[in-house]
Amino acid sequence: MRRYRIGRIEGRWENLIPPIQLEISGKGEIVDAVTKDDDSSEENGSPMYRHRCTGSGTLDSAASGVSSNGDDSMAHLDAVTREKINLDLETYPALDAATQDAIVAKYRHLYGRIVAEGLFECNYSAYGIELCRYSVLFGLMLLFLHWGWYVTSAVFMGIFWHQMSFSAHDAGHIGITHNYQVDSVLGIVIADFIGGMSMGWWKRNHNIHHIVTNFPEHDPDIEYLPFLAVSHRFLAGLRSSYYDRMMEYDTVAKFLVGFQKYLYYPLLTFGRFNLYVLSWAYLLGGQAPCKGPSWWHWYLELAGQVFYWIWYGYGVLGSIPTIRGRILFFLISHMVVAPLHVQLTLSHFAMSTADLGPQESFPQKMLRTTMDVDCPPWLDFFHGGLQFQVIHHLFPRVPRHNLRRVQKLVREFCVEVDIPYALYGFVDSNKQVVGSLAEVSRQAAILAKCQQVMMAESGKGVNGH
């Protein structure tokens, strides 16, 4: 990035709005997608920020007590948004410049400690153990396949994919060799050649997730309508800046969201199939970079996809004599990876989706929108570093095997700056997520009743007239 530096800022740095949060006006002008509330909504000297996407794709006040279109049902959602923002303002440090600057100063000091202790340096012996684990799992898959124990073989195939995904995640963050091209190739080998998923798609998606974590309009990792609504704000319909389309809260969404706490695990069981769709949409949709240092990655990824379907589709599935056996192996091997999709959603689905504005510091925003999962050290291999999502979001390039050591430093940092550190056991974190989904379903039911009452009153008015 140094080649693009044109100067140095003197004094305090004012956070800028990330480009993905900027909207294009009808006149072709770039405008802020976050609007400041009136003076009456300020708390602790910090303005409350409001945003809700309307059908036109512009963002307007969602924290205001009155809906912009006069719809009482939408006014209910606005009130819930205000309540959520007020809760965050009461729970987390004030957003005034002095408080946030102090947090940033301590965050930079924490970064210095991590560098000084060598925690950005990769532990390659740990990857040696990982490689042995991968080899054993793949070998067992081949052994049971040779013996004709197809269900057992499929289970080990899924576990192998589950474990390999963690190293793909490491490579995607340039966290193994810290060399862009080397780690990119490692990631493509693991994701495309071995797993059938596009590494390029994942990096494009995941980088946005790290920039605008848990922002309903912008974070693709929480945009699952019509299947799931992670936040009540999806109930008004939102325009996704990532997918560049409206996420309508239509009839299908209304039905599914009402049962989402029951559908959460069944839907994630089929999560791998969705990744195929997203991967191929990326590879064939012109989203891959065609210039710069990664211009050639697209060609390598296509070769990887062909290789994957040859070794898995033809080599593995083709060795099973019956069609029924092939279908069973295919489904089981993909569904066994479901715990990975649970792990990927666990750290964010139950956390805040409110936007407190650009005056909120990066570390506070990451700690407010992310949860860690507590587990004993001997179980770290199962979670693959995804249990340390708070630490990972604060320092994305810290190698996975150093995250537990960094966690101790981060917890000390949280005590110093008085920011709550969300840490739950695996069972409790699942309860938090399911409870949050149930709460959104409850808000959906209230919204539906409001709309029914409005329709009834409207009908009476017409008949009376």
For the sheet with most strands, the description reads: 2 strands, antiparallel
Q: Count the strands?
A: 10
Number of helical regions: 17
**If you compute it from the alpha carbons, what radius of gyration comes out, rounded to the nearest whole angstrom?**
24 Å
Q: Helical proportion?
A: 55-70%
What structural class do the secondary elements suggest? Answer: mainly alpha
Question: Can you characterise this structure?
Answer:
There is one protein chain. The chain is mainly α and about 475 residues long. The chain has a domain at about 100-235 and about 260-425. Helix content is about 55%, strand content about 5%. It has helices at about 70-90, 95-115, 125-145, 150-170, 180-195, 200-210, 250-255, 260-270, 270-285, 295-315, 325-335, 340-345, 360-370, 380-385, 390-395, 405-415, 425-465; strands at about 20-25, 30, 35, 50, 50-55, 60, 240, 245, 370-375, 425. It has a two-stranded antiparallel ribbon. Strand 7 (about 240) and strand 8 form a beta hairpin.
